[in-house]
Amino acid sequence: xxxxxxxxxxxxxxxxxxxxxxxxxxxxxxxxxxxxxxxxxxxxxxxxxxxxxxxxxxxxxxxxxxxxxxxxxxxxxxxxxxxxxxxxxxxxxxxxxxxxxxxxxxxxxxxxxxxxxxxxxxxxxxxxxxxxxxxxxxxxxxxxxxxxxxxxxxxxxxxxxxxxxxxxxxxxxxxxxxxxxxxxxxxxxxxxxxxxxxxxxxxxxxxxxxxxxxxxxxxxxxxxxxxxxxxxxxxxxxxxxxxxxxxxxxxxxxxxxxxxxxxxxxxxxxxxxxxxxxxxxxxxxxxxxxxxxxxxxxxxxxxxxxxxxxxxxxxxxxxxxxxxxxxxxxxxxxxxxxxxxxxxxxxxxxxx
Length: 352
Hints:
The protein is an all-alpha fold. It has helices at 3-24, 29-50, 55-103, 109-113, 119-144, 151-167, 169-179, 185-223, 229-238, 245-262, 266-291, 300-314, 316-341, 344-347.
């Protein structure tokens, strides 16, 4: 079979796979989530197996630990977040009113510096735009959350899928390896190792970064006396998974709440801002370099685009698939670029 036939075959297989994912994405969440957990936990199970623990028992222990952790999270943390979220929604009219008072205050120099004459109209327009954005955002979360077929599908099906995938992980890798074309087997293996290194380095490192920053932001904002500090801090840390978006969103929300709560005490507002600036410094110079490192090779702009693109196309399932797909595309693009730069088409040399 010629190389062009190989390319046509694998391109057609990729298109069929992409079409199936797009058609079935509403029911894929427990399976994609189980696959992601199996991928993250498989190295730990391998280590336990090398220490003499039966692989099935090790997989069972890991899944039970994950389920217990999720249950503890639901029982302890989620009610607090729901309570703070409901309270925040209830306080929004009061915050809008307070922000309006601050903005129309003649001593507040921002609108004067911007030379805005009708400050009431400016605030009304700003409030309408913010309300429209919140409605659109909530609708996108709702439509993207259609993949959550039911809570039972996540809490019951996903652990079962994770358990079986961990048990059969090595066997599945061997089977897939046996399907590779013999002539291209070493090349595909090398690319797979690069993709695995990028995905593993980013996922494990970035999850640790999110956990550390979420705890830091929550504690820092609580010490600053900010209302809804736990909700804002943990949410900002969680969405730090998307580079820069999480910290900037948390900064804007926390600053808005701080202005409505503390103004004209600008020092306390500055403390809230300082919490996020210090967090950004620690993330960029201490935490991320140690836990993620530069070897991952995923540019922040590419990651942001991948999150938005796959999230838009596939909803919540797309967000879960964004990192591995972005890593695979990045590695394959670099490989294709190397092949192109070494080809006669680029060098202008005639093939021998």
